[in-house]
Specification:
Elements: E1 2-11, E2 14-24, E3 29-34, H1 40-47, E4 55-60, E5 63-64, H2 69-73, E6 76-79, H3 91-101, H4 108-117, H5 133-144, E7 151-155, H6 163-175, E8 181-185, H7 189-195, E9 198-203, E10 206-212, H8 213-219, H9 221-237
Parallel strand pairs: 3-8, 3-9, 6-7, 7-8
Antiparallel strand pairs: 1-2, 1-4, 4-5, 9-10
């Protein structure tokens, strides 16, 4: 499970996250929704140990991320918004490299299993700069589960995919996350309701809604909340009449 207690992140004088607390139970699928700059990516970067919080604590499967970072990170698979791929690598060599980067011995059998499981066998010897974005995201998902983590953290993984690529990736995620906990940051409320049971809506680094994804979708909460937000921003930026 994931437990976040009073988490804050400040960069300079700007508060990115403010006193955020929530928990994600084992096997739960949670969507993070919010406008650009709401704090979704920073939150995921903190949860995966990429950047430290200013205050607060994160627990990953009972391990403090601050006090036991190595043990906690072993349970995490992470896909950033722009996952780093090395263009000169092939699919096979990249998966082998990921074993080494995680401090694992080369495992030919595991690499072969991943290529089969994520429909990449036909591209085993294809350079990464020749893959479509959809295939790259299939590979990114494969590397995220390579070490068999219990938790997946995904930042806008479906961004810029066409319909067929998105559907294929959704099927693969569903197939390989049935017993995993995951957090998916996305701007797509329809996608969130299809893939996640629960939604956290963030605004300016704070949780403004925490509830079932289907309820949010049906009630139109997201649209109405941010329509009001946009109106307030517009009025505050309007010039004052003389």
């Amino acid at each position: 499970m994931i437990k976040v207690e009073e988490l804050s992140k400040t960069i300079g004088s700007q508060a990115i996250l403010a006193e955020m607390s929530f928990a994600v139970t084992p096997g739960e699928h949670l969507a993070l929704i919010g406008l650009r700059g709401s704090g979704k990516s920073v939150l995921l970067q903190i949860l995966c140990g990429f950047t430290p919080p200013s205050t607060g604590e994160v627990w990953i499967d009972g391990q403090s991320l601050r006090r036991h970072p190595c043990q906690a990170k072993q349970q995490i698979g992470y896909i950033p918004r722009e996952a780093p791929l090395y263009p000169e690598q092939t699919v096979r060599s990249y998966l082998d490299l990921c074993h080494k980067l995680r401090g694992l011995p080369s495992d030919i059998q595991r690499t072969e299993e991943l290529m089969d499981a994520f429909v990449l066998r036909a591209y085993a010897d294809t350079r990464l700069d020749q893959l479509s974005r959809g295939l790259c995201q299939q590979l990114n998902l494969a590397q995220a589960v390579l070490h068999k983590p219990s938790i997946l953290l995904m930042d806008d993984m479906f961004l810029d995919l066409d319909i067929l690529e998105s559907q294929r990736l959704q099927r693969l995620l569903t197939l390989h996350s049935q017993e995993r906990t995951y957090l998916l940051a996305t701007h797509d409320l329809n996608l969130a309701s299809q893939l996640c049971q629960r939604v956290l809506i963030l605004d300016q680094g704070r949780i403004v809604f925490d509830g079932p994804s289907q309820t949010v979708h049906e009630a139109g909460f997201f649209e109405s909340f941010f329509a009001e937000r946009e109106a307030l921003d517009a009025s505050s930026s309007s010039p004052v009449a003389p």
